[in-house]
Amino acid sequence: MAEQWDKIIIGIDPGTNVMGYGLLGIKKKTPQLIAMGVIKLNRLDDHYLRLKHIYERVSGVIDSFLPDEMAIEAPFFGVNVQSMLKLGRAQGVAMVAALNHDVPITEYEPRKIKMAITGNGAASKEQVASMLQRTLKIDKEEMPDFLDATDALAAALCHFYESSKPITSGGAKSWKSFIAKNPDRVKK
Fold first, then answer.
1. What are phi and psi of 124, to 5 degrees?
2. CA separation for the pair 158, 161 (Å, rounded)
3. How far is residue 86's CA from residue 54's CA, in Å, rounded to a whole number?
4. Residue 54 DSSP code
5. Residue in 146, 3, 136 with CA at minimum distance from that of residue 68
6. Residue extents of the structural domains in the chain
7. Residue 106 in contact with residue 72, Cβ under 8 Å?
8. Would you please indicate which residues are annotated as catalytic (active-site) residues?
9. Is the N or C terminus of the chain more exposed, i.e. has fewer CB atoms within 10 Å?
10. Arithmetic mean of pLDDT, 98-105
């Protein structure tokens, strides 16, 4: 499967009840949906068994699709400290699964992902899903019931956009500042 793509990006939306995943294939600088889904964890009462299940399922997805890179949503800071701790553990276990498969990881804040997909950092999950459907030309029948899957796909698409940006040197914000900071790299 990996041979038909120039690159495959897996996106993860961490969760302790439902964890979303989405895979994008990149061919000639064009992203396309490969797969998306969720890992349901609410049937397991023991938090540690949930973590084990996350590791096994994320490892299985990685083994099946052989992604080149992982984009994962960073937990946002909420009021409930125990929930944050559990979410951070779930995220960490997904990251370990990627690291054990030598898949590099990039973490993105939820607002950055929403901004990259919709142009609005405060967009709803439904708005993100709708924009993904239009951008990636996903049939309505292929759209998942759980928005955790589209959130994960959004992380992967955000990573594609971010990694496709031209690299500037020294934090240059414009050509003028680039030239000022890098006079040796400019022909006269």
1. -80, 165
2. 5
3. 12
4. H
5. 3
6. 2-185
7. yes
8. 13, 73, 148
9. C
10. 97
62-98, pLDDT tens digit by residue? 999 999 999 999 977 666 888 888 889 999 999 999 9
Tell me which residue of 65, 52, 60 sits closest to 93, measured CA to CA. 52
Tokens standing for 34?
Answer: 């490969």
For tokens 């009840």, name the residue: 17
Residues 23/70, Cβ–Cβ less than 8 Å: no
> When comparing pLDDT for 7 and 165, which is higher?
7
Q: How far apart are CA 4 and CA 185, in angstroms?
A: 37
- As a residue count, the chain comes to 188
We find that the CATH architecture of domain 2-185 is 2-Layer Sandwich (3.30)
Q: Which residue has 């009462």 as its token pair?
A: 45
Q: What is the DSSP string of 118-187?
A: HS-TT--HHHHHHHHHHHTT--GGGS-SSHHHHHHHHHHHHHHHHHHSPP-STT--SHHHHHHH-GGGS-
Q: Which amino acid is at 88?
A: G
Say if CB 93 and CB 55 are below 8 A apart. Answer: yes
